[in-house]
Amino acid sequence: MKGRKLIIISMLIALVVAIGAFTSVLAADDDNTFRVVNKTSRDVRVEVYSRSDIPYGSVDSDDDGVQKIFIVPSKGSDDVLLDEDDTYYYAYQACGDTIDGSINMKDDIEIVIPACDRKPTILWVRNHLGSTTTLALIQGDDEDTYDIEPGLTKLSVAAGDTFYSYDACFPIQDFNGEIHILDNGKSQLIMRSCEYYASPVAEFGAQNVVSFRIINHASFPIILTIIGPINDLIEISPGENRVTLVAGTYDYNFYMDYAVVSGSFFVSPNGNGAVLLSPEYTIDYGLIEEEVFE
Fold first, then answer.
1. 28 CB-contact burial (10 Å; exposed 0-12 / middle 13-18 / buried 19+)
2. DSSP state of 247
3. 144-166 pLDDT tens trace
4. What is the DSSP string of 195-228?
5. How many angstroms from the chain centroid is the CA of residue 32?
6. 195 close to 128: Cβ distance less than 8 angstroms
7. 79-102 exposure pattern, b = at least 16 Cβ within 10 A, e = fewer
8. pTM for this one?
């Protein structure tokens, strides 16, 4: 009988432990992570509240509106679990300023406290590539990566000189450069389409590339060689042809009527005007003139 009681007690204890573990799992499923990254040279105290009327640094231990207080180490990070879908208010002091805001914990949230010589701001990224692309932003020793979807994306970053890098197109190319991010939140980075880099616009700028008319009066296509701001070999069909050229002066030549024809033309910045390609003489097919009889 005594042994049976011990077995029953052991089973009850195991059941309580299992229920506790199951409850903990359910509780964890109802939480999301609030993560703070500290890039300053000092530890930062972060306070989290359930109400917005609690001033930073004057915490009343009896106030149930205070949810969490934690220290984020310099050049490090820390996080806390908060109830899913609830709205919280946070505050911290860094670089001589008190920063506060609100967060809705429907998802995991991360905020970055920038170094004191860099003000927090916004960078707008326009992705014309047609697919999600990973963008790396490097400021000093700090590097952050972002998955940029096609269209317009708003990033919370720090102001200042920033190196950027991403891979795109086929075959894969490495695009990189430097951008100065202003603290007014209006800076923009454009991830251009692969077709853009295959056009003259990439080298000469959009304001210099125009649509120009070349008119072929012959009844057959002409292979036209042009030398100027860009050099190219173009097939000009009979009639009017629209070609993309860079504004400037061009020398040209083509073969017509058993001879090489050369000349030059000017492409204005607005693309007005045209160049005409015509036979210089009529081919003599050797027809016998009609005899005159008396």
1. exposed
2. S
3. 999 999 999 999 899 999 999 99
4. HHHTSTHHHH-GGGEEEEEEEE-SSS-EEEEEES
5. 28
6. no
7. ebebeeeeebbbbbbbbeeebeee
8. 0.50
